[in-house]
Amino acid sequence: MSAQGAGAAATPAPKYTKKDFESDQDVRWCPGCGDYAILSAVQKSMPDLGIPRENIVFISGIGCSSRFPYYMNTYGFHTIHGRAPAIATGLRVARPDLKVFLVTGDGDGLSIGGNHMLHVLRRNVNITILLFNNRIYGLTKGQYSPTSELGKVTKSTPMGSADRPVNPLAFALGCGATFVARTVDRNIAHMDEMLKRAAGHRGTGFLEILQNCNVYNDLAWNVMYDKESRALHELRLQHGKPLIFGPPDARKAVIMDGVLPKVVDAGSVPESALWIHDERNVNAAKLLAGLFAPDFPVPIGVLEEIEAPIYEDVMLQQEQRAISERGPGSIAKLLTSGDTWKIG
Amino acid sequence: MSAQGAGAAATPAPKYTKKDFESDQDVRWCPGCGDYAILSAVQKSMPDLGIPRENIVFISGIGCSSRFPYYMNTYGFHTIHGRAPAIATGLRVARPDLKVFLVTGDGDGLSIGGNHMLHVLRRNVNITILLFNNRIYGLTKGQYSPTSELGKVTKSTPMGSADRPVNPLAFALGCGATFVARTVDRNIAHMDEMLKRAAGHRGTGFLEILQNCNVYNDLAWNVMYDKESRALHELRLQHGKPLIFGPPDARKAVIMDGVLPKVVDAGSVPESALWIHDERNVNAAKLLAGLFAPDFPVPIGVLEEIEAPIYEDVMLQQEQRAISERGPGSIAKLLTSGDTWKIG
Amino acid sequence: MSETAAPATGTKARRELDRAVIRFAGDSGDGMQLTGEQFTTESAWAGNDLATLPNFPAEIRAPAGTLFGVSSFQLQFGSLRVYTPGDRLDCLVAMNPAALKVHLRDLKTGGLLIVNTAAYDKRNLDKAGYNANPLDDPALAERYRLHKVDMTGLTYEAIKDLPLNTKEKDRTKNFFALGLVSWIYTRPLEPTLDWIGKKFAKNPQFAEANTRVLKAGHAYGETAEIFSEHYQIEPAEMAAGVYRAMTGNRALAWGLLAAAERSKVPIVYGAYPITPASSILEELAMHKRFRIRTIQAEDEIAAATAAIGASFGGAIGVTGSSGPGIALKGEAIGLAVTAELPLVIFDIQRGGPSTGLPTKTEQADLMQALYGRNSESPVVVLAPATPGDCFYVAYEAVRIAAKYMCPVFVLSDGFLANGSEPWLIPDPETLPPIDIHFRTEKEGFFPYLRDPATLSRPWVRPGTPGLEHRIGGIEKQDVTGNISYDPDNHDHMVRMRAEKVRRVAQEIPPTTINGPATGDLLVVGWGGTYGSITAAVERAQSDGRSVASIHLRHLNPLPPDLGHILREYRKVLVPEINSGQLVRVLRAEYLVDAVGFNRVRGLPLASEEIYEAIIQLIGSPA
Amino acid sequence: MSETAAPATGTKARRELDRAVIRFAGDSGDGMQLTGEQFTTESAWAGNDLATLPNFPAEIRAPAGTLFGVSSFQLQFGSLRVYTPGDRLDCLVAMNPAALKVHLRDLKTGGLLIVNTAAYDKRNLDKAGYNANPLDDPALAERYRLHKVDMTGLTYEAIKDLPLNTKEKDRTKNFFALGLVSWIYTRPLEPTLDWIGKKFAKNPQFAEANTRVLKAGHAYGETAEIFSEHYQIEPAEMAAGVYRAMTGNRALAWGLLAAAERSKVPIVYGAYPITPASSILEELAMHKRFRIRTIQAEDEIAAATAAIGASFGGAIGVTGSSGPGIALKGEAIGLAVTAELPLVIFDIQRGGPSTGLPTKTEQADLMQALYGRNSESPVVVLAPATPGDCFYVAYEAVRIAAKYMCPVFVLSDGFLANGSEPWLIPDPETLPPIDIHFRTEKEGFFPYLRDPATLSRPWVRPGTPGLEHRIGGIEKQDVTGNISYDPDNHDHMVRMRAEKVRRVAQEIPPTTINGPATGDLLVVGWGGTYGSITAAVERAQSDGRSVASIHLRHLNPLPPDLGHILREYRKVLVPEINSGQLVRVLRAEYLVDAVGFNRVRGLPLASEEIYEAIIQLIGSPA
Ligand SMILES: Cc1ncc(C[n+]2csc(CCOP(=O)(O)OP(=O)(O)O)c2C)c(N)n1
Ligand SMILES: Cc1ncc(C[n+]2csc(CCOP(=O)(O)OP(=O)(O)O)c2C)c(N)n1
Ligand code: SF4
Ligand code: SF4
Ligand SMILES: [Mg+2]
Ligand SMILES: [Mg+2]
């Protein structure tokens, strides 16, 4: 399998352009929806995969976000609510030669689909997961979602929601994810980079994309949209680089104070005390996942990437071993194996 | 609501003994099963709750562990596989005056029930969860479970399992749990203490109990059973105390080396460098959850306990507010409210 | 549209009609739903009977001008009883080419066609797939009474001096259409003016703008030369009383509120959002004062089991969804069956299978309600006939679930859920009482002790001293409730659970027959097809045909008198928006050769088609 | 037990029997299942026909001596065709008081009763609820041919010199019982001795111990004074060929392996463990060499959807479970229906509703298979008749699913799953071919283009250049597969999906009628009741009654000739282990007044009771 972990064919892929990945279907999202930007970024990122179009599959559940596959000129399956991770697992077990993308939402992936998300992550199935987090149920017209903030007033919670939100990154890490990253729908350049990283990971690449639902939850991520706020809070994670953020005139750093992350003036600490980002440090990733504005910066980028056994690879190795050790199965042989007796 | 968060009645509870909590049903576990010890410990811990027996409810899913409620002389509901957290949530919303315990297994709670577990934890519903982790499906006769180690050979995985196990503590923390603890079925004293702590927590008390299935997965937790191994690896977490473990003659300490936990000779580090356990430090808890033998000690005790809004409390406060602000609802008034017109 | 000449009043001729069918159609963004609702309120005020049919795409705001983005609202109103939103249109308002393309086929020849010319530009025509502007085709004006109105231009004109941007101004043009059509059908503007006042209380400019545009549309009808006449529909003969517009989902929600108030037992509603059921959760969430507690669960299984947990706690657990969600609740419902706990399940049926047509109506979940679980798992099944009827059926469902300690299904559908009708407001006192008795008596208590009349077991609230007990999903010994693998006990319990549900027949009133007690044909319906069937049957009756109809509210158990009634007619016709589900039940149960009339188009059945099916079956009058 | 005097051979009288029914009963820990299986193998070797019925509690190892902890294994073997494990017992081996208490009622008067006296101590008697030792009650010895044997003592005696601890020694006593009963029925010990050799190859002491104890039991029969005679059962007349013992779940698994080999398409089996289906997953997992891939999923929904994902990928997706798990798969199956992908679903039915009786058998999921989903969601439904038949049905299910691109249900049950029969090994070459054609042709491709004969759509493997396309659960336009909300298209697609399933009738061979082609009564059965029904019907026929039976393998669509056949008999009886499911289907479909015979006891139907039902229905011979 190629660096992409899957999908690469013997023959090199033709030279594609973005256009080659645009399907003939009308795009049916609301005007202004953040999904448009993501779609365009994904289509743009496809040629760089170097994978023949026919070896790429987009699987999704149900939700505005899950309409995604219809707009990609690849193989696609718009399935049922929350089950895409299981469908993708079955597909990979049957066809490890395919490059599989999974598109889901905060409701599809973390509400009804939370259990399948947990298990696809711990199995480390070789797929790329794009979770569009708009902190709302869009398609059902604006009820709160598992990522909506506590006290969120929506159609279904006129006095505010009563449950504490789940943090998708912390959840993924708690499930044993091997690749966890975050990007923003309005940061095209960063999104491009993250799409490449996620797709290039061998195992489950989990990418949270902060997405704007301008109809039911407009500017939910304003902290990352508003110019000023973004300058103050965006923390770009870069492997081997210190955790430094903030405007040029007031750079700040995140450091460890014992077992507690803490924000300090970048100037006030010696080089040695800086927290150097290491994508292979799962513990660090768990701490980073917990950081958010206003008290902390909002990390974007790759929190973690580690190597781990891939479910379907292990399974296929077992199959190979069984065959090489005892030969391919033969039903005729099997039927007459063990205790048998003759009559007449 | 009382310190237990629920269940205490106006009138003080009668003086109970363990016997008062033993039901008349025959216990149907295999001879030698770790569940017996847990049952006895739970029955023993009941009188100390100071809650009238009739205000206590045990909810469970399906599995050997989930037979638990039948043996408790309290109210009990042996429900369906994996759904106990949702059932308990509905019960608490209807009856916040009851003290609710939830008994589940590694399959019931983390395989089919994983999603409900995620959501009950993030909602912080005021219940006490006892997860019996025997790293196997007992009731269905020995298939591997989500906590079984990678490569586990079982009936359903003759060449070894292909998936990486989920760590219940890390998972719970990733879901935003407000109380996370671990104990061992063969450590009666510690189990007693942890049962009290979990039951006393306001919000979801998540207690993992390492349990032995002597029929299908005997001594899965031998690292905590075998005298020598236990002496070497057991790390007792105590709030405000340093992370020190190991035999008297070779005490070791876990400290932070930047963003990495590390084991060192206790003597070799200055007091100041020791990692002092703080149950309120969620970040620390996430690091602790990752520690396990052989490279690290096995922490038992309370990893984390924090305060957070409780789902059903918030909901009831909203109800109170609605009533106090606009008076109790009246269907007669409602029917004639808004646009109406008269005919004839 | 039967017309009777009437003396001209006002400046223009006014014609008497006894009914009219109108459809407003435009972009998802054009506010057609609001326009239709307002026109509905005006017609209700005018004292007409009416029925409505909102119809919108699954997409939230599909891109402007596209065919799949078209949203429409249809209503029929009249001086006679109105059973349905109507089959064919007397008047179509097409705000853009796409709307014209999609809906024109439903307009009667000679019908009134009103278009907003401003929207018929190249871009929109292309999106709608017209290569030429259909308005320029003389055939159109020959076939229909076409009125080309530059609504956009006239709207801007009416509010040019107001400090609003173009987008905001554009948003008011639907009120121009509303004003115009209100004039054409002589509707009172007051209710809409009131609505504007309330809605934009904090925003005087918008209030002003909408008011002006509404009146401009109205004045346009009065003054513009093009409209030679307009219409008058007398108030309908309706039972005296106070009325309100009622939609099915609101009626279900309010029915629960009434049940909570009367039973004095709190209701816990567990649901996971899904079209077209979501608005029940949203409506209930607004009424916390009624001690109704709503849980937006993580999925449908959690929604159902949370409701079951609440019932175990002594509340009334209710869960609601649509087909795909109900499919997920099957196992949980089985638990309620065997634990013998009350559970009410709302199934707002929509087009399927699978995701299917989320915003369209269907009646294809009857079999799922009856059999969508493992093993023998009998439940009670009810179905409301009209939007307002949902109120009574929800209330009845709670009453039966609590009395018989069992799950009760309520099969509504997308048409009932969103459709509205003028509803005679009942006096809550007249509702049957819901007496719930929680056992507290220790003496002789067993969890599965049975009430001789209902066969239901005692309901004990945890917290009751001395009655601590345990129940579960494993088969249990009758009376004691202890786990039992005894073969004969299992057979006994299977029969017991079935018999308990059969006993609910005690609660069913004699079936009302609409028509002769015996004759050539009986039309049997259930659920949301009530209107279409009744209209068709009454038409056949008025032709002098020997046809009657009954509409089943109780689908399991069936009414005790049903078998007898069926045998009183030569033929039996069962119209359903499915492939024939009730018809199979009736054939199996009574061995009558009932035939189905089945159309599964995501829309209410056309009464015209049912009428034709009736004629086909029994031929010309005897 | 019909007996014919035979010349005494050996030292003791030997009687000829044509059949015998034996049950071994004891503690879950007593190894009764193993004992029964070994006795089965011996009888198979002896050339008898046979049928078995393992029966054990849901608990893993319920505490010793308890009533609910009793485990039993029953078999009938004979020189004539044996259809069932038998209703009443000729011989009962009761290893402890609890076993006696639970099973004695099934022993024929005068039947052979063998008990292990050592186990009849105070503690065990109490646990079984005996206040006096029943063995001391003279009535017992009068009613039955009681043999009190101190098996424990004799076992210890036989191996006292071996270095085993008491627990280990105790574990061998079941082989004493086996040896004794083997002597009584003149079974060959070879197969068991072979088994011991293999099983304890690495553990010579255990091999030695079990061998000695087995022989001790055998010798005890020969020498002990108490047994005056023993029995001989001649080999049965069975088709010539090579046989093996086959259980239903293994047969299902092997059927899939055969299908994978013949179709050359890999099979992906998604399952979540559940009794009694788990052993299919476990069996398949052992055969990776057949390129079968097994996924133990996190739940049943994931198991079903993983299988669907595999089918989308061009493998054959199969998922298996039991009732409660199937209930969870409903929504997913609907997706396969509308996506028109192959999917095979094994439902190993067990006692319900809800958790019910996990280890007991039932036939109550027929309606769930037909209707357990939202909306109109037709699927093919097949049911095997015997353990060995499961092989052919699994194979056929794959063939149909792939040919028609639709879900196919296989309804097996707990009795078939664990029961075993001597199975004539087929030549795989004789199985019908499974030709799977993946479309690669670009020219004129559309995802929902239809094959005129089967109406199935093309199956395209992702990875095929130029055929990139997208499918989903929303209603789609026929042929193009594009999303469509068009009312008429929806109606068309609903009919298309139904018609496609109806077309499968092409695959159904003419129905075999067991008995006269016309007559007084036709008994119609399906699934695991084949044996009980056939035995009852043949008995009625041998009384000279005009009775025939048919056994349906195809439950949806039904055989084309069924309607005609049903009308050839005055009456129709439908025995089922449910409350009457197939009987409802037949009544609805053909309007025949079929009546049901229904017992839901978690056990196979007793052929005696069916026989009585037959007599009741048609009275004495014409
Ligand atoms: C089984 C089932 N339950 C519920 C629904 C209704 N539903 C469709 S999408 C959705 C949630 C969408 O939220 P999210 O996943 O965040 O996607 P978004 O629309 O916000 O992109 C729900 C509840 C469904 N289609 N199927
Ligand atoms: C819906 C459903 N699926 C599957 C099962 C079968 N089942 C019963 S218990 C169990 C797993 C038990 O494992 P665990 O939760 O670890 O409990 P343990 O027996 O080990 O204590 C399974 C798969 C079931 N009863 N219901
Ligand atoms: S509802 Fe929100 S998420 Fe859905 S398409 Fe519209 S803007 Fe996008
Ligand atoms: S199978 Fe294992 S977990 Fe279950 S009762 Fe037996 S020993 Fe305990
Ligand atoms: Mg969302
Ligand atoms: Mg377990």
Please give the count of helices of chain C. 21
**Shape label of chain A:** globular
User: What structural class do you assign from the helix and strand content of chain C?
Assistant: alpha/beta
Q: Main beta sheet of chain C: strand number and arrangement?
A: 8 strands, mixed
- Order of strands side by side in the largest beta sheet of chain A? 2-1-3-4-8-7-13-9
Largest sheet of chain A: 8 strands, mixed
**What value does the Rg of chain C take, in angstroms?**
27 Å
**Number of extended strands of chain C:** 24
Secondary structure tally: strands of chain A:
14
- Percent helix of chain A, as a range, is 25-40%
- Overall pLDDT of chain A, averaged? 95
Structural class of chain A: alpha/beta
Please, how many helices of chain A? Answer: 11
CATH superfamily of the domain at 3-220 and 309-313 in chain A: Thiamin diphosphate (ThDP)-binding fold, Pyr/PP domains
Bound molecules: thiamine diphosphate, iron/sulfur cluster, magnesium ion
- Note poorly predicted spans of chain C: 1-9
Biggest protein-protein contact in the assembly: C-D, 67 and 67 residues
Write the element-wise H/E pattern of chain A from the N-terminal end onward: HEEHEHHEEEHEHEHHEEEEHEHHE
Distance N to C terminus of chain C: 28 Å
* Beta-strand proportion of chain A: 15-25%
Low-confidence stretches of chain A: 1-5
Features:
heterotetramer, A: 344 residues, alpha/beta, Rossmann fold, 8-stranded mixed beta sheet, 3-stranded antiparallel beta sheet, 11 helices, 29% helix, globular, disordered N terminus, C: 622 residues, 6-stranded mixed beta sheet, 24 strands, 36% helix, binds thiamine diphosphate, binds iron/sulfur cluster, binds magnesium ion
Describe this structure in words.
The complex is a heterotetramer, with 2 copies of chain A (344 residues) and 2 copies of chain C (622 residues). In chain A, 29% of the residues lie in helices and 19% in strands. Chain A has 344 residues and is an alpha/beta fold. In chain A, the strands form 3 sheets. An 8-stranded mixed sheet of chain A has the order 2-1-3-4-8-7-13-9, with helices on both faces. In chain A, strand 7 (179-184), helix 6 (188-200) and strand 8 (205-210) form a beta-alpha-beta unit. Chain A is globular and about 95 Å long. With 622 residues, chain C is α/β, with parallel strands linked by helices. In chain C, the strands form 5 sheets. In chain C, strands 11, 12, 13, 14, 15, 16, 17 and 22 form an 8-stranded mixed sheet that branches. In chain C, strands 4-5-3-6-7-8 form a 6-stranded mixed sheet, sandwiched between helices. A 4-stranded parallel sheet of chain C has the order 21-20-23-24, with helices on one face. The radius of gyration of chain C is 27 Å and the shape is globular. The longest helix of chain C is centred in the middle third of the chain and has 20 residues, at 204-223. In chain C, helix 5 packs across helix 7, helix 5 (151-159) packs across helix 9 (204-223) and helix 8 (190-199) packs antiparallel against helix 9. Chains in contact: A-B, A-C, A-D, B-C, B-D, C-D. Chains A and B meet through helix 4, helix 5, helix 9 and helix 10 of A and helix 4, helix 5, helix 9 and helix 10 of B. Bound molecules: thiamine diphosphate (2 copies), iron/sulfur cluster (2 copies) and magnesium ion (2 copies). One thiamine diphosphate sits between chains A (62-65, 81, 105-108, 132, 134, 136-140, 145) and C (272-274, 300, 324-325, 328, 355).
